[in-house]
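Q: How do we represent a protein-ligand complex in a form that can be generated token by token?
A: Start from the inputs.
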Amino acid sequence: MRVYYSDLHSQHNPSFEVFDGGVQVPYLESPGRMQQVLAALQGQAWVNLFDPDDFGLDPILAVHRPDYVEFLCDAFEEWMQQTTNYPKQALLPATFPPRGWSRRPKTLLGRAGYYMMDLSAPILAGTYAAALAAANCALSGAKAITGGERAAFALCRPPGHHAGKANCGGYCYLNNAAIAAQWLSESAKVAILDIDYHAGNGTQDIFYERGEVLTISIHADPDFEYPYFSGYADETGKGDGSGLHHNFPLPAGTNDSGYLTALDEALALIQAFQPGFLVVSAGMDLYVGDPLGRFQISRQGIQAIGARIAGLRQPTLIVMEGGYDNTALGENIAALLENFRGSD
Ligand code: OKP
Ligand code: ZN
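Then emit the structure tokens for the protein with OKP bound:
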């Protein structure tokens, strides 16, 4: 299986994040995550590692608003040029607009508040380069499956599924899976299945009114879990996208059998849609004991999830999203991916 990976992610290395309650903790979405996955995959005979190709900005601008991409590109340098009476590390605003405030301020901190949904996506010197490389990993994997590969894995960091048309948040800046899916949709219908523990609000936002891409997310109920404001079962798409978004909010403590029941429902929807390509947003924070998760999915459960998705027999791009139990992350990804090897 072709695996796309770029070392550029390591330039994005925030030192802390702010948890609910105002506590500063070491940034969970760390470069070390990638070392764990690489270590597990490099031991597999069926894995072939590649650097991504550069697809330029067009496929990114087919998903994200140009003013948002410009902000991501320029923000850190602008931040460094500002005079502040406190030490400057990451660009991270502390002021956010209430509902209904749609004004886009000229000031950098105003724009930062406008484009950020939370305190989990600070912008550093290497953030934009890392985000671009991750998007290129996803696009390279997409190209591989249009070329006849049964599956490809995009080992993306930073992750993407919380990034919407014009927002970062939740460790995400560019929506890697959505960018790849939109690119694939020029050749055939596409389905995105998001199995990250958290609702894929960014992917939902991007495709909510679009007809070419079916989007499905299985996740912890936003009624008790981040991202709180999106991912409810009654959100099903609008306009051209009417009926083409599905959320499966699940309770805390969901185990393998509870999860697989929801997954089977999701897979039936994908089968009925008859896509030409499948994109999987693969967050491993559904694993039991994940520091950000409250599901009870076992390693065997992850293997079974992979087996059932592979059973759709669609050319499949698997895209790395979350997963914060670093010691288990590599083996969890290997358990998911092993179902997709081979040429059938
Ligand atoms: C990103 B992905 C903890 C706050 C957590 C951000 C979570 C981002 C998850 N109380 N804030 O979906 O794995
Ligand atoms: Zn997650």
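DSSP finds ten helices and ten strands in the chain. The first helix runs from residue 32 to 42.
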